Amino acid sequence: MDFDRYLSQRAQRVRGSLGRQTSVPIPGLINLGSGTPDFLPPPEVFEAMQRALEAGRVQYTPWTGIPELRAAIAEKLKAENGITVDPDSEVLVTSGAQEALMTVLMTLLDPGDEALTPSPHYDEYTRDATILGGTLVPVPTTLETNFTVRAADLEAALTPRTKALVIVTPNNPTGTVLPEATLREIAALAQQRDLLVISDEIYEYYVYDGHRHISMASLPGMRERTITINSFSKSFGMTGLRLGYIAAPAPLIEAMLPFHHAMMICANAVAQMGGLAALRHPRDWFADILAEYDRRRRQWMASLDDLGLPYSEPQGAYYVFIDIRPTGLSSREFVARAREEARLVFQPGTIGGGAGEGFIRGALTQGSPQFEEGLERFVAFVRKLL
Ligand SMILES: Cc1ncc(COP(=O)(O)O)c(C=O)c1O
Predict the structure, then answer these.
(1) Nearest one of 334, 331, 329, 366 to 351, comparing CA atoms
(2) How many Å apart are CA 356 and CA 321, to the nearest integer?
(3) Which residues contact residue 140 at a Cβ distance below 8 angstroms, ignoring those fewer than 6 apart?
C-alpha cells in the first residue's frame, strides 16, 4: 500500500530527518559523543518516586504541574537565576525541555514566521519550526569567535517575520557560554526590535574555568519578553524521566496551555515527585560531578592539543566541538570512518546546521574506563589521517 498520499505536508517536510536509531548495543562500540550524562540522580529522587508509587500517585496532576513542584521551581529560579515568577500562573511543568520547546514554538510561529538562532545550534529547533511551517533562521558563528554570536549579526538577519531569538547557553553542540556583555547586547536588540527571547538553559550547571551562566530573564527589561526553558535531564541525570519546565509571563503560559494539553495533558506524576526531591536536594551535590566532567574535558583538550587539532574552547555544557578539517574529511565522512575503523561514535557538527561542517561533536559523558579507551582510539585514528 502506498502510504505517501496519507502523509500531511508537515509529515513530509520532516520525513527521514531523524535517521534510524539502533537500539541494540554493539559490542566494542564506544559513544564519545553522547548527550546522555553518565551519573544518577540523588538517592532522594528515587525514594520520592518510590513513595509516590506506593501512595498510588499515578493519576493526572494539574495540567501545569503539581503546585509544590511549581513553587519549588519558582524558588529555584529566584535563588539561582535571579528570575521572579508567580508559581501559579508563570510556570508550566513539561515532559522535558523537548516538549517545552515544541510547545513554545507552536504558540509563537505561524507558517512563514521566523525565529533566529546562533548556529551551530540544537537541531530540534529546526525540526519543530519546519513541522509548523515556520523557519528557524541560523545565524552562523565561527571558531574564530569561539562560536559566540554578535548581536549585530542577529540584527542583520531580522526580517518583518522574525518573532523571537532562540538563545541556548551553555550551548549544544559548541560548548559556548555567552558572556554577560553579549547577552546584554542581545537583550538590547530584543527590546529595540520588540522581539521575544526563548532562552534554553538546560546546561546551566555545566560551566568551567570561571565562566558564568547568566539567565536572560534576569537582565533589566527582559523578564517580560523572555521564555525560559529548563529541564531536570542534564542537571540531575534524569533524561529518561522526561521532566522540564517553562517560565514565562502569565499570558504566554496561558496561550501555551492548549498545546501542552494536546500533547501531554500533564507531565508524568511520579517524575514530578522525583523532580521536587531533586530541587530540594542541596545543590553542592553537583560539585563532584562538575569536577569529574572538568577532568574529562581537560583530558580531551590535552589529546587534541597533542594532535594539533583545533577545537572550540569548551566553556560549558558537556561537549567538545572539534575541528576535523585538518584530516581532509567532511563531518559525515569522519563520523562514518571513526565508527568503522575505530569503533567510536561521534555526532557530525552538521547536526547543528551547515555552520558545523568540518566539525564533530565529542562529549564528556562517557565514564571510565571507556572514556580513556575511547580517547586512545580517537588519537590513534586521527594520527593515521593526518
Ligand atoms: C539544547 C537542548 N535543549 C533541549 C534538549 C532536550 O532536553 P530534555 O531531555 O529536557 O527534553 C536537549 C537535549 O539534548 C538540548 O541539548
Answers:
(1) 331
(2) 9
(3) 119, 153, 353, 354, 355
Please provide the average confidence, as pLDDT, over all residues in the chain: 97
Contacts of 364 (CB under 8 A, 6+ apart): 293, 296, 297, 300, 314, 318, 319, 320
Give the distance (Å) from ligand 1 centre to CA of residue 103. Answer: 14
Q: What is the pLDDT of residues 314-338, one digit of tens each?
A: 999 999 999 999 999 999 999 999 9
| pTM of the model as a whole | 0.97
Q: Whose CA is closest to atom 14 on ligand 1?
A: 35
Which domains, from first to last, does the chain contain? Answer: 4-41+285-385 (3.90.1150.10), 49-283 (3.40.640.10)
Give the pLDDT band of residue 20 (cuts 50, 70, 90). confident
pLDDT tens per residue across span 105-156? 999 999 999 999 999 999 999 999 999 999 999 999 999 999 999 999 999 9
Place of cell 551547515: 354
The answer, yes or no, to whether the previous bond of 170 is cis (omega within 30 of 0) is: yes
CA angle 119, 124, 127 (to 5 degrees): 100
Test site for ligand 1: of 31, 199, 231, most ligand atoms within 8 A of the Cβ: 231
The three grid cell numbers given for residue 39, joined into one nine-digit string: 551519573
Length of the chain as a residue count: 386
Beta-ladder partners of 348: 360
Q: 545543590: which residue's cell?
A: 283
Q: Phi first, then psi: what are they for 117, rounded to 5°?
A: -145, 145
Q: Which amino acid is at 314?
A: P
Give, for ligand 1, the residue of 102, 166, 202 to mutate: max count of ligand atoms closer than 8 Å to Cβ.
202
3-class state of residue 359 by DSSP: strand
Q: Tell me: the pLDDT tens digits for 191-216? A: 999 999 999 999 999 999 999 999 99
